[in-house]
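Inputs:
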Amino acid sequence: TQLLEQSPQFLSIQEGENLTVYCNSSSVFSSLQWYRQEPGEGPVLLVTVVTGGEVKKLKRLTFQFGDARKDSSLHITAAQPGDTGLYLCAGSNSGSARQLTFGSGTQLTVLP
Amino acid sequence: NAGVTQTPKFRILKIGQSMTLQCAQDMNHNYMYWYRQDPGMGLKLIYYSVGAGITDKGEVPNGYNVSRSTTEDFPLRLELAAPSQTSVYFCASSYRDGTYEQYFGPGTRLTVT
């Protein structure tokens, strides 16, 4: 079973601060996705990274896939209250359907 | 497009009762998935389907059954509800395999008492 560990589990910061969330595994993934989930709703995809060492930017969010494709990070610059939510990383395995294995998530709260 | 829809939104079951969670998508996606999410945890895959008539077990299939008679619908059946099945259930679909974006429904919150 492939496992993804996310850290920290909870993060509470003030508006304007920067933060980084980590997603680590001992397994290699063919691709990795980051989702954000708001209360009472399903997760929504933020980004997919495929190549080792890949960096993708989405406005104030920067995503990086580790060179060995075993880990990833999400960095948020100048966090805003609208960034509040549960951030989930999910790795795709090499099976025929390439199911996703989800991490346990990082609950981010950005205080105004 | 409505995307992925799930019914009901909330349900309380007594131990031993049965129920079916409904899921439908109107995006003509071949791949569909059922996940459960427990408090403070990520999502665990229960069952998935790569097309009509084809289903397979995920990480936590015990106590559940699925069917896929059409591209649009992917119901999840709980035969003998147990307290351990108290969870939030999400249905999702994708155009192709798990490397593609998965679109999630709003979830069904199930309590078994």
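The two ends of chain B are 36 Å apart (CA to CA). Flag for discussion at group meeting.
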